[in-house]
Design brief:
4-stranded antiparallel β-sheet; 16 strands
């Protein structure tokens, strides 16, 4: 199916720049395919001649993203969510696994090929204050991507940057301000404009609203959804805020200690979480655990997450899980299909109370 882009769409009081090409992607096609993605970091030795320990941040995950959808990665801090986003964009090199974007295997692509692909794969940073250069006005920073990829004419680039800033609600005299002259929400809008001005297809949103006030979070989340619909964007949305995830995601992947423990459609996950860890996360957030009058009963997990340098044998959750059995302490569960939909990595998902 071919979807022609309209010339402009009004969002947040501004005009969205539309790409000059068309998107010839069927709605069932996968724009991103990740297989066996693993990242191990070497750690300092305990002894001078001792073995060098490794920290496994991501442990062999696989997933696909369909063009136009939002896949959310959720989990506790340190579970590997942001590392997955950095691996997908090749900001850090994977230890193992393959990454294919629009059918092209980028696992062994050189720096020049990745540079060419940067236009199609962009990142929205969590800390907008650190992501912006304090020495440049925001319109100059938004135009930098156009300069790097030689998009448009030299005289046209700053005008395109201004129109993109207007699209995210930073029009008028705000376009020529420096980052320190903007509020936190305005800085994040500038970061979004900088990512989208080069007309990407895939956007990794790394905790894009975590540092914002609740009222500003809602505005930015709504803006991201409006921009996704207008541009046909695909989001890999990384967050620990389940209330936000419940609002934006099409599918949700729950991570624990570098692995996916459950992957399901948003409505299925929040109505019937199958994994004890998913139930613990959703049950801990009152706004997230009620849906259409049904409530998810919280699961109390004992202790703290173990170190990824020394993961438990068997199921990684077994030292904290109230439902763990001897099998959980011996065998590592693999992701498998559930009758009600979704995938779960739990030996006893069907029999949990």
């Amino acid at each position: 199916m071919s979807t022609a882009f309209v010339e402009s769409v009004d969002v947040s009081g501004g005009e969205i720049i539309r790409p000059e090409t068309t998107l010839d992607t069927a709605p069932t096609d996968s724009i991103l395919k990740v297989r066996g993605l693993t990242k191990r970091f070497p750690m300092p030795r305990d002894r001078f001649f001792g073995p060098r320990p490794t920290l496994t941040a991501v442990a062999g995950i696989s997933f696909e993203l369909v063009a136009g959808e939002t896949l959310a990665l959720v989990g506790e801090s340190g579970c590997g969510k942001s590392t997955v986003g950095n691996l997908v964009l090749n900001l850090i090199a994977p230890t193992e696994g393959t990454i294919a974007f629009e059918g092209e295997d980028l696992s062994r692509a050189d720096a020049a090929r990745w540079r060419a692909r940067r236009r199609d794969m962009q990142l929205i940073f969590q800390d907008s204050g650190s992501a912006l250069d304090p020495r440049l006005t925001i319109d100059r920073q938004v135009a930098e991507g156009l300069d790097i990829h030689a998009i448009g004419t030299v005289s046209d680039r700053l005008d395109r940057a201004h129109r993109m800033l207007e699209a995210v609600g930073l029009g008028g005299d705000l376009v020529g301000r420096y980052p320190h002259e903007l509020s936190g929400g305005q800085q994040q809008r500038a970061v979004i404009a900088r990512a989208l001005v080069v007309e990407p297809k895939l956007v990794v949103c790394d905790e894009p609203v975590a540092a914002l006030d609740v009222s500003v979070q809602a505005q930015v989340v709504n803006l991201l959804q409006d921009l996704q619909q207008a541009y046909g964007l695909t989001y890999l949305f990384i967050s620990h805020d389940l209330s936000v995830v419940r609002h934006v995601a099409d599918r949700v992947a729950v991570m624990y200690l570098g692995r996916f423990v459950e992957v399901a459609r948003r409505d299925v996950l929040f109505a019937r979480p199958a994994h004890p860890y998913s139930r613990a996360l959703i049950g801990a957030v009152p706004a997230a655990r009620s849906r259409h009058g049904r409530k998810v009963h919280p699961v109390a997990l004992a202790g703290e997450p173990p170190s990824p340098m020394f993961p438990p044998i068997g199921c990684a959750l077994n030292p904290r899980c109230p439902f763990a059995t001897d099998r959980c302490r011996r065998e590592t569960p693999e992701l498998r299909s559930l009758a009600g939909g979704g995938l779960v990595a739990c030996h006893h998902a069907e029999g949990l109370p």
